[in-house]
Design brief:
single chain; about 260 residues; 7 strands; elongated
Length: about 260
């Protein structure tokens, strides 16, 4: 697959509506990093007379379980399927054809790994996807943070969570002494090492998602053998400006 990367919100909206109007069969899939984005795109599509499904954390487990148990039944006759990280591994359509895939990421929402798991649900059978080109809007000003330098390591993250757990345990023991074993009703156990490692990994993934968004996205593309390039609407001069001039804002972005 080939991924066209853009940083222009209007550009993705145009591509989304264009895909809906152009398609002859199948549905347009749009992965969103936040439920706010998902709701906005669904509203936009419905305002143009298109119909489909949107999946996010607010729709309820019953509806998701119903649709995800047999996606072919619910996706075969709609114009769009919009989703957040709620669409993930194990939810596979085997007959419903996807016309095109678009992505709108969010640095503070679903992680890129979660979005990619949703994106990879489509086109898993011969003829399952009609257009192999993916249009992706990245939630960053441009490819100005294109490396992983100065990022925390897993070793440093595990050290932080272990230190925090030790501090919290000491505070718990102190409260028990202060109030007495019988009066202090809160019961707490030590967090096992494996759970601390999972927590450290999640913290690291969030940091990468927020501070190295462009680099993390392109790395996930390369991991799957997908080609990626900046949207053709970016002139060579503009690409240079984004990559170099705005690079000065990298330090400030890392502090957000």
């Amino acid at each position: 697959r080939n991924v066209q990367i853009t940083f222009d919100r209007l550009r993705l909206q145009e591509q989304f509506l264009k895909a809906l109007k152009k398609k002859r069969r199948g549905f347009v899939a749009l992965a969103c990093g936040s439920k706010k984005q998902a709701k906005q795109y669904a509203k936009l599509a419905k305002s143009e007379g298109f119909r489909g499904h949107v999946y996010h954390g607010d729709i309820g487990d019953e509806l998701k379980a119903k649709h995800f148990s047999d996606p072919d039944m619910y996706w075969s006759d709609v114009d769009f399927v919009i989703f957040t990280s709620t669409l993930s591994v194990g939810i596979d359509n085997r007959k419903a054809v996807c016309a095109k895939i678009l992505v709108h990421t969010c640095r503070c929402g679903s992680t890129l790994r979660e979005l990619f798991q949703g994106i990879c649900r489509f086109g898993r059978f011969a003829g399952g996807i009609l257009d192999d080109e993916i249009v992706a809007l990245l939630d960053t000003g441009g490819p100005k943070i294109n490396h992983f330098d100065n990022m925390p390591s897993f070793t440093s993250e595990i050290a932080n969570v272990v230190q925090k757990e030790a501090h919290d345990w000491e505070a718990y023991q102190a409260r028990k002494v202060q109030f007495g074993e019988g009066l202090y009703h809160h019961r707490r156990q030590r967090i096992p090492q494996w759970m601390l490692r999972v927590q450290a990994w999640n913290n690291l993934e969030r940091s990468v998602n927020e501070r190295c968004h462009y680099a993390a996205f392109t790395r996930l593309c390369e991991h799957r053998g997908w080609k990626h390039e900046l949207d053709e609407s970016f002139s060579r001069k503009r690409k240079y400006k984004i990559t170099n001039v705005l690079a000065d804002a990298g330090t400030a972005d890392a502090k957000e």
